[in-house]
Design a protein that fits this description.
Blueprint: H1 38-52, E1 61-63, E2 69-70, H2 73-80, H3 91-95, E3 97-101, H4 104-117, E4 123-126, E5 128-133, H5 146-151, E6 161-164, E7 169-172, E8 187-193, E9 197-203, E10 211-215, E11 217-219, E12 229-235, E13 238-240, E14 243-245, E15 256-261, H6 270-275, E16 284-288, E17 296-298, H7 303-311
Parallel strand pairs: 2-16, 3-14, 3-15, 15-16
Antiparallel strand pairs: 1-17, 4-6, 5-12, 7-8, 7-13, 8-9, 9-10, 11-12
Length: about 300
């Protein structure tokens, strides 16, 4: 760029001429929490400490209220979903409660366990797979077993074998009709299922209670890395939502939250996101690995991020 008017070869940052017109707004208040009671005030202050990484020891853990601890996943399920094995609950039941975990594999295990407890007859919907291969890499694409293709679990894809029951909670994985409330992350309740379309009721938000229909659509994984072929899956773009990953739960607000931390969080801010879905420590239950200290949680925070914000 040397020699052109108005350019520089220096690596020094040049502030914009608009900088003086910007105002820095610092987000310091958790609007999910009302400070009307001492209990909620204490929880709100503790959440701020979690978010800022205070009281972290050399092992990367922080103290928490031991009343939040439960011994195993089965106890966690019955705390968050009481009597779920007795009768199909109304949609409002699922609006106020959810279980979170950091990893997809843990979520799959929890959803499977809760679905087994859930009353009603289970129906399985199998996906239709097709593949495209790179020339010269794997030309015998038609020899890939269908069972193997359906077993592939990739980011952004619904299961190849989708197990559902009437009345179970679901989450939408694609933006189908945003104007009608069918967006990626929308929670739903299954009302009726056929081989080609699902009748669902929207759970929460502006379109709460509205009935919609979800068709099978063609889907591609968000990341094809690790495959010698490109996978195409035709399936309903939904997953069970008894349990969700912490990242998928951003934007959700509930009264009762369960957190499976047998495998601890691994990314910045995940613990804060999980804990802040609820409004009181009395409504939060956490299960830890048997080798973990029962009064400490793993928290991943990079304090230098907050130092950079302060310098601004």
């Amino acid at each position: 760029m040397e020699g052109f008017p108005g350019t520089t070869t220096s690596n020094e940052f040049l502030p914009s001429c608009l900088s003086s017109d910007f105002q820095v707004l610092l987000l310091r208040t958790n609007l999910r929490l009302s400070r009307s009671t001492t209990d909620k005030l204490h929880f709100a202050d503790w959440l701020l400490d979690v978010g800022h990484g205070k009281d972290i020891d050399v092992k990367g853990t922080i103290p928490f209220d031991t009343n939040m601890h439960v011994p195993d996943p089965e106890t966690l399920i019955h705390h968050i979903y009481p009597n779920i094995d007795c009768v199909v609950p109304p949609p409002s039941y699922f609006l106020d409660r959810i279980i979170l975990a950091a990893r997809n594999s843990d979520i799959d295990d929890l959803n499977r366990a809760i679905l087994d407890l859930f009353p009603g007859q289970e129906t399985t919907f199998y996906s239709a797979e097709s593949v495209e291969t790179d020339p010269g890499v794997f030309s015998q694409s038609h020899h890939i077993p269908t069972v193997y293709l359906r077993s592939i679990e990739a980011s952004g894809l619904p299961p190849g074998e989708l197990h559902l029951k009437h009345g179970c909670p679901l989450i939408l994985l694609r933006n189908l009709a945003p104007a009608r409330g069918l967006c990626n992350g929308t929670r739903l309740i299954l009302k009726r299922a056929t081989g080609h379309v699902l009748e669902v009721q929207i759970l929460g938000g502006q379109h709460d209670g509205e009935i919609s229909f979800i068709p099978r659509i063609g889907l591609l994984p968000s990341n094809q890395a690790g495959f010698t072929f490109q996978l195409h899956r035709r399936q309903f773009p939904i997953c069970l939502a008894f349990a969700l990953t912490i990242n998928k739960a951003q934007g959700q607000s509930v009264h009762y939250i369960g957190i499976d931390l047998r495998k601890p969080v691994f990314a910045h801010g995940q613990l804060y996101v999980a804990l802040s879905r609820a409004t009181s420590h009395k409504h939060v239950k956490v299960v830890l690995a048997s080798t973990t200290c029962k009064n400490r949680l793993c928290n991943v925070v990079y304090p230098e991020i907050f130092d950079m914000v302060g310098d601004c």
